[in-house]
Amino acid sequence: MGIELAGLSWNPLGDLEQLTEFSFMVQALEAGTIVATMAGAIGWFMVLRRQTFAGHTLSVVAFPGAAGATLAGLPLAAGYFGACGIAALALSRVSRPGRESLSSESAAIGTVQAFGLGLGFLFVTLYSGQLSDLQSLLFGTFLGITAAQVQTLFWVALAALAILAAIGRPLLFASVDGAVARASGVPTGGLALVFLLLLGLAVAATAEITGALLVFALLVTPPATAQQITIRPGPGLVLSVALALAVTWLGLGIAYFSPYPVGFWVTSLSFGLYVTVRLVRGILARRYRHDPLGAPA
Amino acid sequence: MLAHEFMRNAYLAGSFVALACGLVGYFVVLRGQVFAGDALSHVAFTGALAAAAAGVDIRLGLFVATLAVAMGMGLLGERARPDDVVIGSVFAWVLGLGALFLSIFTNGSSGENGTAAVRVLFGSILGLSAADARLAAAIALLAGLVLLAIARPLLLGSLDPDVARGLGLPLRALGIGFFAVLAVVAAEATQAVGALLLLGLLAAPGGAARLLTDNPWRGLALSAALALASVWGGLALSYRVPSLPPSFAVIALAAAFFVLAALRARLRRGAGHEGQAVESSLSRIEA
Question: What is the CATH number of the domain that holds B247?
Fold first, then answer.
């Protein structure tokens, strides 16, 4: 890593101090906080709307976007946001309820994903840059985040969350019961498009921290965990953001003291949390079923 | 071009892997199991890197991981089909594990071995030795033959499970057998085009063949032919233009075939519906 790290001590406050000693770590924590807030909120709606495959496709497209931007000498963020924005627009045209048979549609999605990844590989090869570039594009890094990047992320996240807050209520309505929402005059088609664009923004921002392949760790798993715990929108959204924040902070902290990549820690923490919550819920549900009065045995 | 030994090896291994991918891919698309191919590609990456980190042959990790997961999916079957949120969470974690093994591997050895990750992710068909190529061709040939042997009941089981069950076909065993073949082919294809791109070689030729013909036998042949054409053309293209990685050229051609097939299907649309297509497919199995 180039920098000699002191490692963990028995003094947790000292460790925290050490964490914030280097500016790259402060920037990583700032960026992680911004991204986790955005991913937790937008991801909650994505899980509610069952659009995880759209999110998956967008995250795959983020890779050639970033690699292409590196090749063209553009800032990485331009590649991430440009590619995800275009892909979101394309998806909103494709995913209209059509008469296309299901099997050939999934074949089309698979083809597009493989082609996107291949394109990214081509760009990296043409750039003939360092191998570590490829790895950090795919699996994330917290070493390369600059103060300017943090600032961009901040404004993007602020705009995205403002839009989400503005369309939140009708979006919730349209997501839970599209037919009724349409009947009562909610523009569901327009909402779907705006939401896909927001999702593109969130994927692009998350990909900068976790890498293109691990976006789901923040965008799907924490919201899915939150929806296991509560189905009420308000507390669910708060919980989703809180879980995403916890996972990101812990992941970054552990990655700092360990030789292993941040992507691994963030995915493992969020997945572990998800599995634990599901298990606990399963046990509680079984007890509940055994006792008709609902009192825990 | 064929004067170079590495090109001959690439063509030998690539041809048979392409044929196997085309045959299996047609069934993958027909059975609506593209997501299973997606899962196997994630698992192939992590399995191969786990083997690399442990210091054993990458192929061992590939086959063990893909076969284990394919068996698991086959045994769980239709009943326990998880929803996409669960799939997404598991995929992200599997790839996270892959990132862990990758960093163990690159930290443990001196820098030159870092290319192993790129080989696994994006394939290394030009780096095969003659023995590797022969082995890959033999395994792919075997997988293709097994698939052709069970093709008839598998087609019927995929298109009309109720009738197949009525005829007393062992659908569950067929499904598990199919997953086993799929796992072997996925592990082989990972060596050719890489874990991240193998989905393209499975889905694109199969999807294109499904769009071009309703006749399942013709579709199988067409899918295999398209996969073969993608690999041959891709290899030749990357030989002519050295900056093009072979795996990209192969996937780009496969995707181009799919787009052409989709355009043709769109031009001729209006004649038939999905229901009729299944019916006419069924009548052709009997024929």
Answer: 1.10.3470.10
